């Protein structure tokens, strides 16, 4: 019971942080790249949801889906930092939280390739948002920082998922997906 309460408190703490996807953080270094994904609840929830969903899928999805996310996010970053505009980036970010949360809450069983493609699609928008804000003088250190932070958030999602699944059960893992859905809807509402 204590473990489930701790998970609930930790997840609630994420949910009540301000929804600042792109808070105007100075973007010029590895450290600012690491900090950027940690400054927005949409980034945090989407990346953790990928880890949770990968745990539900099991097998190779546990490492392929997060790796697909990071690779596609870097591709989106390159596109944006090259000056190519992308419509609907902010709505896609909020939608990613809702949809990935739904996949977890409903325990959607996707084939390995489809889960990787879905994670990659959302990741491309997250990467584009990062790249659109990057200073051209420090693209590589910044990209390395946000890729590392993203991978760390995926690992947190995987760890939370494995812990919840082994000690509490799949219901707790799916409940985390439900919380992500509610949070995503709140972000969309404004």
Explain what you see.
By secondary structure, the protein is an all-alpha fold. It has one domain. It is 78% helix and 0% strand. It is built from eight helices and no strands. It has helices spanning 2-15, 30-38, 41-57, 61-81, 89-105, 112-132, 139-168, 170-189. The longest helix is centred in the C-terminal third of the chain and has 30 residues, at 139-168. Mean pLDDT is 83; it is low at 1-25.
Descriptive terms for the model:
single chain, 190 residues, 8 helices, globular, mainly alpha
**Secondary structure tally, helices:** 8
SSE-based structural type: mainly alpha
- Rounded to an integer in angstroms, the radius of gyration calculated over CA atoms is 16 Å
Uncertain segments are 1-25
Shape: globular
Strand elements, count: 0
Helix content: over 70%
- Strand coverage percent: under 5%
- Biggest sheet layout: none
Give the SSE string: HHHHHHHH
Total separate domains: 1
Mean pLDDT, nearest integer?
83
The N- to C-terminal Cα distance equals 34 Å
